[in-house]
From TrEMBL:
Domain PEP-utilising enzyme mobile: 156-222
Binding site for phosphoenolpyruvate: R291, R327, N439, D440, R450
Similarity comment text for this entry: Belongs to the PEP-utilizing enzyme family.
Enzymatic reactions: L-histidyl-[protein] + phosphoenolpyruvate = N(pros)-phospho-L-histidyl-[protein] + pyruvate
Lineage: Bacteria, Bacillati, Actinomycetota, Actinomycetes, Micrococcales
Name assigned to this protein: Phosphoenolpyruvate-protein phosphotransferase
Protein's gene: ptsP
Keyword hit for Magnesium: yes
Cellular component, GO annotation: cytoplasm
Active-site residues, as the UniProt record annotates them: H189, C487
Pfam family, one: PEP-utilizers
Record key words, sorted: Cytoplasm, Kinase, Magnesium, Metal-binding, Phosphotransferase system, Pyruvate, Sugar transport, Transferase, Transport
Cofactor: Mg(2+)
Family annotation (InterPro entries): PEP-util_enz_mobile_dom, PEP-utilizing_PTS_enzyme, PEP_util_AS, PEP_util_C, Phosphohistidine_dom_sf, PTS_EI, PTS_EI-like, PTS_EIN
Function as written in the Swiss-Prot or TrEMBL entry: General (non sugar-specific) component of the phosphoenolpyruvate-dependent sugar phosphotransferase system (sugar PTS). This major carbohydrate active-transport system catalyzes the phosphorylation of incoming sugar substrates concomitantly with their translocation across the cell membrane. Enzyme I transfers the phosphoryl group from phosphoenolpyruvate (PEP) to the phosphoryl carrier protein (HPr).
Length: 560
């Protein structure tokens, strides 16, 4: 698309989507009310609180009904919280002390939330929901719009600082045309959600802070831009691309392959067996990364072998005869577990995490491998297991030994730290396969926290430093005859997927919603061309340069 560089705002595009529509901004939480005495009577303030709580409960229930499914359950539970007697009693106590309705609600909800948080576990997690309800009631008392995702009554481009997981879970995808965030990088919650749901998104767009409700924009994820006040010609071009993309999404599902027929199996990243059916429907040829943390994250102790077996069996049953790569528990840093990780670590990303934490808690690893072996026995899938955060040859050797002791025949490693990429050939002499986790590999190569907005510009897997490490692993795969996959978010970026294949990667695993775009892009290039595109990207000085070089190389044989 022909952009005026002056008016296009830059960020990091997620996927290949393009959308055109009016902006609606996420409203910020209301400012905390001041501790002031009310000029109204206690009864008048109580009536205001009652009316605001009723209005918020009715709004949450109505939103739940229109969203349906899991969102409805969450919203109805929130509506009930608003009317919970423990909260109303605490509000009354504040009103009796002569406080304003706003202050009474804010303080009372905070008190109850604190009590819930102290209980920990499932109830503790509900504390955040109470804060959200409290903010809604305070906004209603002030006559302000409800905080959170806006509801302008028509389709819109959502612009936010960044999105919390609770906001993203409830997005009405019939109305959200695209997401634009001011903060956040390619591995932020927003980016992961956008990829998993196939939503057009550009993240980390600092200039989007200046956008106002109603501004018309084109959000172009493929070019990582947000264009304010587009011309008619630009709008027509965008509309044509929206249509072309719809056609690509509707293209027949074939096995992943390059234009010359070189197979590149396309696998799914899953976080729960519940998503298996959708992955199969979208053409996943197996599972390249099953994250097992979901089984552990909400519990205070590790789940039993029987509980784990049931879950793994459900997963494997969805893929008879297909490869399913299950990752051993990856706890620590961005996924801490109270019973496994040391809360005292100053730098948890560099601490006892991933396989290191499992080796310090061998029982948990052994139980998990036993459960996997039992699930393997009961099903027809081809189960592979892999260890997260392997950083030495010795760790690879220990994990392979453990896996074999438990009757698991295919054991590999995730390459997520530069040391294991550099030692890939020695590791692959021991391990059966390697799977590159580009999210962490980028974090550790660039020394840039994957969750920190201020360094998100460095969190880019297109960086030639990251690509060179991928090349090392690809070459090690070729030298040892062992398969090398990529299961980080990079595999979901169609052109980067081509680069990865050009660097020697043989399988790609991604959020199922990305499969169609990646499948279509691979079919545009031969193996030789993919290698030439990768070579062009490698010579660039930075991530933006690599992207541009790859685009130019790709366009030379496959014009857009
Ligand atoms: C990765 O680091 O790229 C990866 C796939 O693992 P996770 O995102 O779960 O850390
Ligand atoms: Mg990782």
């Amino acid at each position: 698309m022909s952009y005026d560089a002056q008016s296009a705002m830059k960020g990091t595009g997620i996927g290949q989507g393009i959308a055109l529509g009016p902006v609606a901004r996420m409203s910020p939480p209301p400012a905390a009310p001041k501790d002031e005495s009310s000029t109204l009577s206690r009864e008048q303030e109580a009536a205001r609180v009652e009316a605001a709580i009723q209005a918020v409960a009715a709004d949450l229930t109505a939103r739940g009904q229109s969203a349906g499914g899991q969102a409805q359950e969450v919203l109805e539970a929130q509506a009930m919280m608003a009317q919970d007697p423990s909260v109303t009693e605490a509000v009354d106590a504040e009103l009796a002390a002569g406080k304003t309705a706003e202050y009474a609600v804010h303080t009372a909800f905070a008190e109850v939330a604190e009590q819930l948080a102290a209980l920990g576990g499932y109830l503790g997690e509900r504390a955040a929901d109470l804060h959200d309800v409290s903010a809604r009631v305070v906004a209603a008392l002030r006559g302000e719009p409800a905080p959170g995702v806006p509801d302008p009554g028509h389709p819109f481009v959502l612009v936010a600082q960044d999105l919390a997981p609770a906001d993203t879970a409830l997005l009405d995808l019939n109305h959200v045309l695209a997401l634009v965030t001011i903060e956040g990088g390619p591995t932020s919650h927003t980016a992961i959600l956008a990829r998993s749901k196939g939503i057009t998104a550009v993240v980390g767009v600092e200039a989007a802070a200046g956008l106002a409700d109603g501004d018309e924009v084109i959000v172009d994820a493929a070019h990582s831009t947000v264009l304010l006040a587009p011309s008619q010609q630009q709008k027509d071009e965008a509309a044509a691309r929206v249509e072309a993309r719809k056609a690509a999404q509707a293209a027949p599902i074939t096995e992943g392959a390059l234009a010359d027929g070189t197979p590149v199996p396309l696998l799914a990243n899953l976080g729960s067996p519940d998503n298996a059916a959708e992955a199969v429907q979208l053409g996943a040829e197996g599972v390249g990364l099953f994250r097992t943390e979901f089984l552990f994250l909400s519990s205070e102790t590790a789940p039993s072998v029987a509980e784990q077996r049931e879950s793994y069996t459900t997963l494997l049953q969805a893929f008879p005869g297909k490869k399913v790569v299950v990752r051993a528990l990856d706890a620590g840093a961005d996924k801490p577990l109270p019973f496994l990780n040391d809360a005292e670590e100053e730098n948890p990303a560099l601490g006892l995490r991933g396989l290191r934490a499992l080796l310090a808690n061998e029982e948990i690893l052994r139980d998990q491998l036993s459960a996997l072996a039992e699930a393997q026995e009961a099903t027809e899938a081809d189960l592979w297991v892999m260890a997260p955060m392997v950083s030495t040859v010795e760790e690879a050797e220990i994990f392979s030994r453990f896996a074999r002791q438990h009757g698991l025949k295919t054991a590999g490693v995730m390459v997520e730290v530069p040391s294991s990429a550099l030692l890939a050939e020695q590791i692959l002499q021991i391990s059966d396969f390697a799977s590159i986790g580009t999210n962490d590999l980028t974090q550790y190569t660039m020394a840039a926290d994957r969750l920190l907005g201020s360094v998100s510009g460095l969190q880019d897997p297109w960086h030639p430093a990251v690509l060179r490490l991928v090349r090392e692993v690809g070459a090690a795969g070729a030298a040892t005859g062992k398969p090398v996959g990529v299961c980080g978010e990079a595999a979901a970026d169609p052109l980067l997927a081509v680069v990865l294949v050009g660097l020697g990667v043989s399988t790609l695993s991604m959020a199922p919603a990305a499969l169609a775009d990646v499948r279509a892009e691979l079919l545009r290039h031969t193996k030789e061309q993919a290698e030439a595109i990768a070579a062009a990207a490698l010579t660039a000085p930075d991530a933006a340069g690599a992207r541009e070089a790859a685009r130019t190389a790709a366009a030379s044989h496959s014009p857009e």
